[in-house]
Design a protein that fits this description.
This is ATP-binding protein. This protein is α+β, with helices and mostly antiparallel strands. It is built from 4 helices and 5 strands; from the N terminus they run αβααββαββ.
Amino acid sequence: MADRLDEEYEGRCPGSQDADEPETTIALSGDGGCIAEARRLAAAFLTQDSTGQGRGISERVVDLTQLVVSELVTNARKYAPGPILLRLRVARSTVQVEVWDSDPVLPTARAADPERVGQHGLEIVKAVAAHLSMRAETVGKRITAWLPLDSGPA
């Protein structure tokens, strides 16, 4: 699914937020418990949004968001020392999951290999996201996945 053109999503990048688009940014320590914490906080944010904003975010979207959060935070923890920033935003018809870490090296998806054990995280994210953006920052990198809100029944 992650094959749409960047131009479609540029207007949804940081700095273009509408007042009614809920957002949260979470600083994660990068320790062993940060992956579970990130998943829990993502679910809490989306659940709060669905009740507080009346958006009716489906369980499937919550599950997919937790999966993407888990994969991106796991990669950040594995390959970059130090803290991780997780930003979640419900914008228009998507949930945006953005992860920043201190390693400037952009990841690359490996070719599918059913014999390979592990290292499928980016493949998974690309499969469930409507769009995936990776960019180097002055310090580190930022990876953003856009998940459609219509990924299943509410």
